[in-house]
Structure to design on (750 residues):
């Protein structure tokens, strides 16, 4: 049993047996039997089906539609264009708060990118809606689109990511480079990526009396409710958003997008419930993507192989009308120690949808460049790349100068290297072949991701029968949040799991914060933990103030809660069950509320990150250039592990994503039309089973006393960050070729 101590004094102790257990997902049976209800599964009475019509040009104007043909089609109820769409209560072209992005809502006849929604056809059946959409036959006035990172003048963005400075600098980088014994100066390119969640974006919306009821997959129920309320001029209590499950999110379902608003507008226009589901091809446009990057890395080292300068400059792209800038260079803030570090960004405006957060936004693109450059420098110095990283290890966060709240990267290096069998790796490339004559290479990459927390809240309730529950807007997008929160919640009330229920999936519950930034477990988990703490403190007060209780006079700090019982800390034979205490006090329920957020003081004092090291083996066909990843070992330290089975699964998912980043993923734009030529899961290549070798994810023990009372850091995104670089470095080790444009294609190896 783990002792979980509340962060405030005087504190009772709670002993839980659930957190830390490798529980199988509690919602697994629902999912594999089809009983888990996803947004598009909902069919309210009177439902209409909406089909989006999206632009086939990338820039210009819509000059006409064949509205009469669509309207005349049997089953079509309404055609919504910019001419007749109901009014909005916010300007969709206003970005007034960091997370209130602009959205597409048929505001006018302008086309700003291919795939932009330009009309919606609403019908009695999906077939009629789709046929009506085909009959609309839009006519356009075309302008020349810009979709390549070299199209257009660049400028310095006002900020990067969610409001970070565009530039950071310490020391004299130019001096550090000039004085260096060796310099690496290399440019890396990463392509457009799309989220490609299994479940497409979808909405079922109905106006019921004065209420708007919405089913949609979202990573942020409370934020979604607020945004819909703003957009439709309603108070938030009149808006209900439901989302028991998501079929993947990856950042694409964090914020409100135009098509969801269009679904609700269609319901408003017709006065009936409407379902709108994006087709697979329509996911490549209005829902965000990972910006392409071109990054120049300049590193200098002295004669001892110590870094003298890191200069990381990233060119990124945004849309023609909105501001989102991938913070690709910022990964160089945290990993390596150097007297001089500079990170800068420039941006271009392109005729694409607006880029957005995509799993490990910034870190994924940035670390593949940084880790490649570091590897190249190690090779130039004739030093083992792992040793080079240890030599240049940052003991304190390089740019901010803050100490790390904890950092177990050395342990990740040691455990990962041992499991992989790194010792004995030849320094030179092209030294290893397998029995079939394939070139074999080994590479390493460092993984890092910040320990993010949002603000969250939860409500916990204990019932007189000794059972309890917690309510919060948990978002399970496949990562296992519902299971982890049930484990934290049962421990928060010191109950066995079978006496506990986690309630979530509706915006009526307290806001558990966004499932993003790998911060959901820490944020909602802490809120749940604190809500349970309130309940137990109230229960303890009932007992310790009652002369009839064996706990009388023990005080909050003198009591332990465990398995549905309170016990005296100094004499555990004196105890009482929750139900006995509540029965005597004649209370049916005890409720408590809790909040979860980063401690601002500690955050100002410490740099908080999860760390890891990924080791990859690749085999490369020397004639065909085909690369296969044949072994993958990751070792990660991310604080306290609530559920090792789910966490391993998150690491596997991240590492698989990293393999795709290095070798497969790329959305390809046709520069003539501004359209994506592989907007489908057939030709947008992501790893499938045959691409992925058996993997190992090592959970390196780490106790972070400062990150939050639970000691939890995020695990969802970090796996991507180390793996892509490790694979690229292994490809060099196998072939002697440094490929700097990703994904690595066979033809790049000759
Ligand atoms: Mo993630 S890109 O923060 O959902």
């Amino acid at each position: 049993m783990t002792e979980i101590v509340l962060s405030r004094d005087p504190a009772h102790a709670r002993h839980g047996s659930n957190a830390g257990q490798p529980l199988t997902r509690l919602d697994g049976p629902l999912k594999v039997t089809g009983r888990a209800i996803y947004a598009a599964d909902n069919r309210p009475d009177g439902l209409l089906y909406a089909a989006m019509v999206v632009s086939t040009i990338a820039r210009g104007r819509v000059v006409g539609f064949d509205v009469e043909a669509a309207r005349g089609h049997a089953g079509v109820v309404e055609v919504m264009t910019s001419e007749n769409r109901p009014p909005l209560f916010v300007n969709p072209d206003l970005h007034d708060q960091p997370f209130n992005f602009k959205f597409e809502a048929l505001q006018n006849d302008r086309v700003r990118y291919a795939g932009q929604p330009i009309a919606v056809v609403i019908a009695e059946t999906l077939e009629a809606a789709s046929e009506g959409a085909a009959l609309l036959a839009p006519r356009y006035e075309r302008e020349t689109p810009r979709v390549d990172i070299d199209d257009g003048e660049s400028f310095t963005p006002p900020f990067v990511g969610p409001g970070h400075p565009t530039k950071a600098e310490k020391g004299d980088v130019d001096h550090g480079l000039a004085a260096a014994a060796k310099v690496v100066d290399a440019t890396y390119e990463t392509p457009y990526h799309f989220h490609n969640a299994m479940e497409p974006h979808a909405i079922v919306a109905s106006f019921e009396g004065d209420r708007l009821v919405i089913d949609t997959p979202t990573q942020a129920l409370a934020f979604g409710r607020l945004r819909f309320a703003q957009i439709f001029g309603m108070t938030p209590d009149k808006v209900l958003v439901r989302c028991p499950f998501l079929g993947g999110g990856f950042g694409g379902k964090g914020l409100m997008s135009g098509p969801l608003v269009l679904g609700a507008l269609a319901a408003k226009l017709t006065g009936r419930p409407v379902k709108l589901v994006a087709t697979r091809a329509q996911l490549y446009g209005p829902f965000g993507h990972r910006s392409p990057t071109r990054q120049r890395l300049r590193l200098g080292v002295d004669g001892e192989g110590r870094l003298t300068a890191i200069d990381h400059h990233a060119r990124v792209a945004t849309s023609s009308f909105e501001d989102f800038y991938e913070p690709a260079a910022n990964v160089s803030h945290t990993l390596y120690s150097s007297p001089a570090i500079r990170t800068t960004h420039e941006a271009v405006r392109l005729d694409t949808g607006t880029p957005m957060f995509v799993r490990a936004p910034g870190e994924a693109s940035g670390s593949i460049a940084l880790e490649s450059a570091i590897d190249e420098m190690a090779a130039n110095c004739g030093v083992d790349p792992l040793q080079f990283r240890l030599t240049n290890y940052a003991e304190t966060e390089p740019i901010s100068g803050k100490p790390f709240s904890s950092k177990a990267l050395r342990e990740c290096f040691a455990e990962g290297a041992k499991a992989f069998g790194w010792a004995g790796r030849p320094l030179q490339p092209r030294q290893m072949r397998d029995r079939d004559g394939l070139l074999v290479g080994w590479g390493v990459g460092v993984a890092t991701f910040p320990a993010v927390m949002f603000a969250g809240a939860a409500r916990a309730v204990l019932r007189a029968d000794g059972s309890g529950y917690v309510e919060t807007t948990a978002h399970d997008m496949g990562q296992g949040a519902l299971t982890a929160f049930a484990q934290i919640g049962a421990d928060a009330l010191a109950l066995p799991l079978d006496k506990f229920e986690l309630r979530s999936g509706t915006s009526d519950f307290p806001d558990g914060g966004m499932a993003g930034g790998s911060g959901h477990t820490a944020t909602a988990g802490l809120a749940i933990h604190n809500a349970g703490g309130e309940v137990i403190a109230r229960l303890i007060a009932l007992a310790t103030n009652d002369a009839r209780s064996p706990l009388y006079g023990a005080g909050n700090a003198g009591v332990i809660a465990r398995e549905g019982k309170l016990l005296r800390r100094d004499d555990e034979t004196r105890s009482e069950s929750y139900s006995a205490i509540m029965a005597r006090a004649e209370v049916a329920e005890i409720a408590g509320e809790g909040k979860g957020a980063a401690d601002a003081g500690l955050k100002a004092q410490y740099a908080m990150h999860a760390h890891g090291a990924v080791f990859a083996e690749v085999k490369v066909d020397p004639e065909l250039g085909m690369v296969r990843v044949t072994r993958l070992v990751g070792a990660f330290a991310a604080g306290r592990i609530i559920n090792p089975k789910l966490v391993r699964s998150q690491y596997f998912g991240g590492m698989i994503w990293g393999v795709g980043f290095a070798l497969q993923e790329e959305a390809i734009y046709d520069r003539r039309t501004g359209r994506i030529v592989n907007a489908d899961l057939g030709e947008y290549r992501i790893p499938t089973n045959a691409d992925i070798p058996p993997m190992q994810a090592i959970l390196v023990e780490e106790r972070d006393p400062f990150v939050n009372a639970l000691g939890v850091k995020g695990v969802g995104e970090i796996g991507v960050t180390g793996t892509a670089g490790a694979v690229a470095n292994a490809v060099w080790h196998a072939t002697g070729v440094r490929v700097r444009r990703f994904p690595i294609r066979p033809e790049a190896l000759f």
Remarks:
- Residues 537 and 556 are 7 Å apart (CA to CA).
- The two ends are 57 Å apart (CA to CA).
- The chain is about 25% helix and 25% strand.
